[in-house]
Structures
1.
Amino acid sequence: MLSLISSQPIDPNDQITEVTTYQGSMSLRIHAMGFVELAAVAARAVLEHRTAIDAIAPSIIYAIRHGVELFLKAMITEVTETHRVTAQAPNRKGVMADAEIGHHWLQRLWSEHQGLIVEVLDYEAAHGEHANFDRRAWLAHFGEIIDQLHQVDPDGQTLRYPTNRDGVPNLGGKMLVSVTCLERFAQATIECFSRFDERGC
């Protein structure tokens, strides 16, 4: 039987890597980067005619989206853990409570936690941290990434299932997508992630 996991090299060109499970917000950011890098590699494979475009394009978009969701949740977790603050938002009863992050609505996650992230980045800047990090430009870039992904897949279900929870077809059946645009978007997202991670360098 074919093995999914092997700790031994299969051939001379094989490489063995260490795969970690969740170990805090930093490891979640690494996982997030991995999904977006995978999307960029897959888009390049399509452009070089090494894989079928129709089969892989939805997965490329979903991998980017999933990576961005993980990165956003990692930022929220990091801000909460390191600065001991939480974002507040109305709960289902309309009462202000700690904002939830256990859902997949990108725009909601961003809108409920953006102010908190801005506050922490402003605090860091006011205390002389990350002097070479343009937080305003970064926040605008990250917000634009969120907006673009929200238009395609607001709740993380559109590209995973043929219909939503109410049985309505997702995306109305189809959309036209430039693979070069997907590759560039993935690369821009990787750059955005990297700038945040390197802000303390």
Note: Residues 162 and 170 are 6 Å apart (CA to CA).
2.
Amino acid sequence: MDSDVKQAPDIESNEQETNNEEETTNEPEFNDENPPLPTESPLFVEQEVIKPESEDQAEVQSTSSTEANPNTFPLTGYESPIVGDSESTGESKKSEIEVSALFHGVPTASSKKSKKTKKKKTKPKPEPSKLPPLTQSSSSTNESVPIQAKIENEIGKRTRSMLVEQKRQKAAEDLQKKIEEKDQKTRETLYNNSAANYQRACEKCIAEQQKVAIVANRRSLQMSEYQMHCMNKIQRNEEAERRAMEIQYQKVQKMQERAADRWLKQHIAAQVSQQIERRRESAARQKVRREAERLAKIERELAEKRQKELEEKRIIENAIMKMGNSSRN
């Protein structure tokens, strides 16, 4: 019995080698019904199939696995795929049907296509003389073990591929959600920054306008005060000149009264009065001319300042409009 048990795995290994040679020589064509398994992904790791030593232990393992998780397949321990989680419900249903068909030994469309593409090769049968005599119980268990291992491996591959696909889809959805959240945050920050900059520019423009208005009011007050000062000064000068003329006239009258030659005194007085009037008129004209030039210069300076302030205001408004357009875009 010990020799029978020891030599049974050699037969299984020979059968697996022949099957692997067939699969390598004739690769099946992959269609929508028979998609390729993602065996090259780093998450795919084949698990070793634990072969039960006897039928009693296999039943115990199957009952314990089904009691632990009701979604698991019997004798395998692999969880059944959840159809609602995946986006492609049609593919998941097809895969479930194919897995159940493989488990029960029913050939599916994909397996039929793959079998058609494969070239049939006869397995090398071992000679009966070289094999040790096998009992009926040991041969039945040894024949059922490789079929059961193939079914379990196929189910494991299918479930692992579906789990890998679900994980990949979940990771892609999480990445898309993170990217969308990041884009939303950047849009909100840009909108807040643009609104704050626009508000600051508006406040700055209002402050500049207030400053311009204050300066204009000050200038107007200064001009009015200066005009009043000039008018008062002219009036004082006129009064001083009038007084001086009156004093001079009184002196001339006294000189006329005192002088013997009245005509000479009158002539001298007339000349003096004419000279005084000419001087007064020339002085008044010069003063008026100077004041006019001064006022013209002040008005020019004010006009230039107003022009500069208007240009600065236009520049600020253009900048505000550009910022508003950029924020809208």
Note: The longest helix spans residues 136-258.
3.
Amino acid sequence: MAKVTDVDIQVLKDLINQRFDEVKTDNTRLSGQIEQMSEKIMNLEIGQAKIETRMDEWKTGIDKIPDLAEKVGELKNWRQIALVIVTASFGGFIGWLLRSGNRPF
């Protein structure tokens, strides 16, 4: 068997220490990235909370849309009725003017 010298042991210790240092460096880098990801997640959660708050504010307006659509439909019918009345009145007035135009004053 070959003899293990102090130099060989020192080389192995240095190699092991170097690997531990690399692992520590990687661990530190990963910890920093995890902290950044945590901050990003917190920002997203804050943004989501703001959106939820705004949606809650809009909810009353959104819930009124079917009622407003129904009222617009009713208004549309009234608008059609009013248009018919105005058209009939205008037509009657024009007819009256035309009839009156044939008579001498």
Note: The chain has two domains: 1-74, 76-104.
4.
Amino acid sequence: MIRRDQIGRIVRRCAPARSLARIFRILKRQRPTAQSAGSAIYITMTYNFRLVARPIGAPFHLRYGSPTLSSSLAFAHRLARGLVRWLWRFVPIPVTLSRRERVRSCAGALVGIGCVGVTMRALPGLPGDVPLLVAPMGASAVLLFAVPASPLAQPWSLIGGNLVAATVGVACAQWIADPVLAASVAIAGAIGAMFALRCVHPPSGAVALTAVVGGPAVHALGFRFVAEPIALQSAALLGAALVYHALTGHRYPHGGAARPHADSNAHAAAAPLHARFVRADLEAALKNRSEWLDVAPEDLESLLRETELRAYARTFDELSCAEIMSRRPISIAPDTPLPAAMTLLERHRIKALPVVDADARVVGIVTRADLSKAAPYATPGFLRNLSARLPRSLVGPALVARAVMSTRVHTVRTTTPIAELVPLFADHGHHHIPVVDADHQLAGIVTQADLIAGLYRQSQVRLAA
């Protein structure tokens, strides 16, 4: 704020000048203080205009009696703000990759380009006029190793885009005499062809341009430029990317996030009411955009659902699996006879039995469905009679839990937030999930009823608070 003892001096110095520039220069030299904070100071000046000094951090506003001057200043102010916002778009977006991923990307590009060069040198009978490396392969390496999840970095985009662009570029170089016109038509034609064939690959634009302005050596190759340098180097780079990503534990080709077994609508139904969306909503929103997003719809859906899950977990962050699980669950050993397993299910009125080893670690789970598949008409009495009639050597391997249990059992920790159970139950079709402690020993079991009861209890606590 401008101190009150400075008001008269500012007015006396500005009124004779009648200059807006001088007003702002003087105000800029004043040292702002916190005095009179919370109330504006109105400074009356000549020609019926006022200068309003607002609290610290707020802009100064000039109010004029002339409507034309006021509208001009307002337009200038909006123009300046728009210019600042436009310039702010040039600020680089922060990179969210970890240091490990950055090193992995750099090492991948090193390996990829090296493999391309070694492959070209090792090919027997390759003419000497064929370039050992073409510049667009460097741009392709950036996509394949730095952003392998991008739709622009997939195998068909690389191979199809480079071959199509090279073909269009060579044709334009041979049929259009003016190099500038040939280059322009080659780039435009390559983009149109890549859109039509669904193989958009940005470095392919450089391939088309290289075919036009690559010099006499490239022009002498003619349409051999498509096959020998471009096709060979693209295939070598793709092979290096496939092997490198497989060795480093990355999924490539990246065909989008793995879809759940159940319909995505089931997950939406299990999500909070205000956050529900289905795949059709996402596709409709993407169609309404006038620009193409460099992300696969499956990845975008997975990202939105993970964001939704994290928001849901933040709402119920105070509740973990240890607080809702059924403690001291009934479990069996892998060698438990099926009659005993069926008896436990009937006696305790449960639908699943975790199978644990000698160290109490979960190795599988037996459900009523597993027993029904093993013996469709089996009952505890039927299995007991059957095991009594069969020879002892046949009872062991055929009628024990190990023979029918599901070994691909999903477990959670006691500290796992209950919000992470929602997609397991809704999307993956689980009905019972064993809970293990820090030593990976069985500590309890969570059912769908336990999850619903825990969510209801937590919601009641929040409503009471």
Note: The first strand starts at residue 41 and ends at 44.
